[in-house]
Amino acid sequence: MVFGGSLSHHFVQRLDIAGTLLFTDSSLMHLIIVESPTKAKTLNKFLGKEYDVIATKGHIKDLPKSKLGVDLENNFEPVFEVVPKQESNVKSIVAAAKKASDIYLATDPDREGEAISAHVAEILADSKLKVDKKHIRRIVFHEITKSAVEEAIAHPRDVDAHLVDAQTARRVLDRLVGYKLSPLLWKKVRIGLSAGRVQSVTVRLIVEKEREIEAFKPVEYWEIGADVTTPEKKALTIWLAKINDKKAEVSNEKTAKEVISHLEKSTYTISEVKKREVKKRPYAPFTTSTLTQAGARMFGWSAKRTMSIAQKLYEEGVITYHRTDSVNIAEQAVSAAREFIESKYGKEYVPQSPLVYKKQSKMAQEAHEAIRPTDMTMGNVTNRTSPIDPTEYKLYDLIWRRFIACQMTDVVFDETSISVTATNGGGEYLLRASGQIMKFDGWRKLFPQKVSEEGVVLLPDVHEREVLDLQKVLSEQKFTQPPARFNEASIIKTLEKLGIGRPSTYAPTISTIQARGYVEKDEGKFKPTSVGIAVNDFLVTNFADVFEYSFTASMEDNLDKVAGGTLDWHKEIKTFWTPVGKKLTDVEKNAERVKIAVEKLGRECPECKEGELVVRQGRFGKFISCSRFPDCKYTEKIVNKIDMKCPKCEKGDIVMKKTKKGRKFFGCSTYPECDYANWKDPRKETEEKADPVEKDQAEEVSA
Predict the structure, then answer these.
(1) Sheet containing 640-645, strands listed edge to edge, beginning at the edge strand earlier in sequence
(2) Among the three residues 433, 451, 479, which one is the final residue of a domain in this structure?
(3) Residue 634 catalytic?
(4) pLDDT in tens, 93-109
């Protein structure tokens, strides 16, 4: 058995099972194998010279790209092969392993990391390599700090076969869906399409939301209120709540005019004043889901970008592992946070006992902690020898504030509600005003509150039975709004609520459905493309069970059971695939080919003179073609003009374009003659210069 000992030891100690020292050898090296070169670099900063750290640079074994790689006749056994581009890296790992006395597999603390460790162990176990298998151990740490790594080395374990099985099952499931359904889409919808187990369900959510919006019928309603003054001439705005003791529902102009007429002739008397103290608890520390939602809301970042930056922060050792759905916090981290809060802000900001948060997801698993900083004082970031990237610091600062705030005292408000009765011969009306006044800022010390948010209204001091003077009756016609389209934050929140996907899948899922052209972003909101709608309708019609929300969620739960060792993954795959495999044959034989809807432009094809020009969705975005395709192969690019001349050359038109990654920008139509380019809409820039507006830079994390 191998024991790690302190990192300061510059020698190797080998002990037998009884703990008797067998020998000491200072010439041998400990080998630690991680995934990322950045992670390896961070470890090398505090590990001694007797440690060699090498990176796998991601997965070293995977299913082959050119074939299914799953033996359907042999209990769905996968055939993992060394990734071709990793062959030279594998040789380097083997060479380092031969020189090592002990080998520690230190890949990420989740199922994917466990699978990578298993693959490394499989390669090193090859008898031809002559690597001592007895001294290959798995270590796990959730933060890349000296103390965490020391603790991990002191308690090595074997690779967890159940976690590896869960990752294998997910990989096999996704391969079966992708490689078996995709060819069917080629035949029945369009060449080049592909299906994904979680991605297709996500597209379904977006398609169904779009149909809700299309089917929505706005309903008219009127918002009615009054500006009044107190006997001390203090202004107060009140809003209609009840008419003759029933909820006020004014749905047309005729009723609105009648109510307004009555209110203009009414006497206003304060009927009730309620005051109570309200406390607001801090939000839980970040999980993967809430972090990506906050990144989208506050910075406009995609889930992919947020997770990419979080990955760097983790590998640099400044935050804990970033793929987690747990809100647990280590006791030492809680103690460190409480000590910091007391020293920095005072005892009144420290709760009597530590705050504990409950998991929100059904099956919180993978990492054991929420996302938090590894140093409560921020010293490991602000005092770094090499300054942290400004973008990374932006996310780090948010993580740091959210974590420190989660162990601070509640915000305390005085909440006031004023009820006013308006009476006349036409009936009795109840109008209300409510507001809050902060008494103690608590955790908002780190998240200052703007006066305009969360219903913060300063109300005058009033008393019951006081008569108010009417200044003006307020009224506005409004219409109910359709459901909002999903954005990055809301789609992740919905996936988590439904139990679809896991922390590691949110970002790649959203990126994939955009890259495949199934959805596109319109002003930051997801909108299905015609191709996405066609694919969704085909899959839902022919494979309703497979792409049902509850079924997809139950699959995730079953994968959790595999990880816990209570379910055999082969049995789960068989239960899933047997009916799907039979259905594939039937659908391929009997299902009709789906026509992708196209947008007609009302223009004749300039080439064949017979067809009409239409907008189609291709692999690289939208383009214009002839309706008679493939008989007529005329195409042209879509040019989105914004009715503005180029401010640089004053000759070309400004057109909206997209980068290869899909980001919008504005350029000149004469490019490359004129190289004008701008991320911002130049029309808005012109407006801002003409009428500059001071922008509020205050940042707030919403629930």
Answers:
(1) 640-645, 653-658, 664-668, 677-678
(2) 479
(3) no
(4) 999 998 888 999 999 99
